[in-house]
Amino acid sequence: MAKDGQVYYDWELVASPPSKECPSAVGCMYPQHIYLMSATVRGGDLYVLSVDAFPDNWRTAANSLKRIRGSFDVSPAPVDVGAAVVGEGAGDLQVL
Question: How is the chain split into domains, by residue range?
């Protein structure tokens, strides 16, 4: 997903019980935990949001949890206009 040109990656991960607790060779039908994650890189730093829920929470609040994940936003650092002074000549820039 892209917001203002910033790319966000979203995942839904399901944590199943250990295989010895599952009667089937393909895994359990009922997960123990659900994780919704969103991540982005801005200014060389990785930012991650993780929202988790138990199955009972997921059944009643899945759409709300997805909206929370969708609201994740890493805005660029504000520019301090008082931090730089531009001089008269070309290339005259002083950082205070």
Answer: 2-77
